[in-house]
Amino acid sequence: MGKLYVVGIGPGGIEHMSLRAKEVVEKSDIIVGYNKYIDMIKSIVKDKEIYSNGMKGEEERCREALKLSKEKNVALISTGDSGIYGMAGLILELRGNEEVEIIPGITASSAAASILGAPLMHDNCNISLSDLMTDYEDIKKRVKLAAEGDFIISLYNPKSKGRPHYLKEAIEIIKEFRGENTPVGVVKNALREGQEYWITTLKDFIDEEVNMFSIVIIGNSKSFIKDGFFITPRGYKLEK
Ligand code: SAH
């Protein structure tokens, strides 16, 4: 009898994996996930058996992982946190009597925040702009209500070739509720090879360079930029 570990490996490099995530990958017999993610941790995957079935087919991959785990220890890999736009939910939906353990990881918003400064110091939310499984009208409604509620907003899946204008539209919605000097941070490939980032404002934001490897963080009404850092105050009353 084996076990299925649903592992969030963090944003990329081994050094940002939790000790527990590293330990379960090392002790698993089979690794399941996209080749690209498995490559990121290949120094610990070594010559283990790999099951990978390309970009589509999440359901098939999860079913296979569950099946394989009846016999052997299996690590199903997600980047970031496996419970945030990852595989943990689908595994639990499909699970029969297999033993499953979910291992958390550093999600993209936390990774990106550490690079930008401290943008997530107050109430914040994640919104994915991907309409593959969510109606675009619902996405826009969530952006609007998050903006109205003054949440700091992290936009996952901000832009892809199939829906190039969603990010621009989301920014326009947010502008209705936030000042034009509200900071906006973009981080591409946070904490992994190819990392790039920039900090701008709602007024000057250009979506041109944003892609699917990026996350976009929009501050709340109190966020500001100081010495190149994007900061949202927690609310401490500072002595002058
Ligand atoms: N489970 C992942 C999210 C998967 S959704 C997590 O918790 O981070 C995929 C989206 O996450 C990407 O389109 C991008 O918006 C964001 N993302 C994931 N890793 C990232 C990284 N290292 N740098 C910037 N954005 C990242």
From TrEMBL:
The species this protein was found in: Clostridium paridis
Record EC number: 2.1.1.131
GO biological processes: cobalamin biosynthetic process; methylation
Limits of the Tetrapyrrole methylase domain: 3-204
Matching InterPro entries: 4pyrrol_Mease, 4pyrrol_Methylase_sf, 4pyrrole_Mease_sub1, 4pyrrole_Mease_sub2, Cbl_synth_CobJ/CibH_dom, Precorrin_MeTrfase
Coiled-coil regions, chain positions: none
Pathway: Cofactor biosynthesis; adenosylcobalamin biosynthesis
Annotated PANTHER family: COBALT-FACTOR III C(17)-METHYLTRANSFERASE-RELATED (PTHR47036)
Alphabetically ordered keywords of this record: Cobalamin biosynthesis, Methyltransferase, S-adenosyl-L-methionine, Transferase
Descriptive protein name: Precorrin-3B C(17)-methyltransferase
CDD domains named in the record: Precorrin_3B_C17_MT (cd11646)
GO MF, any single term: precorrin-3B C17-methyltransferase activity
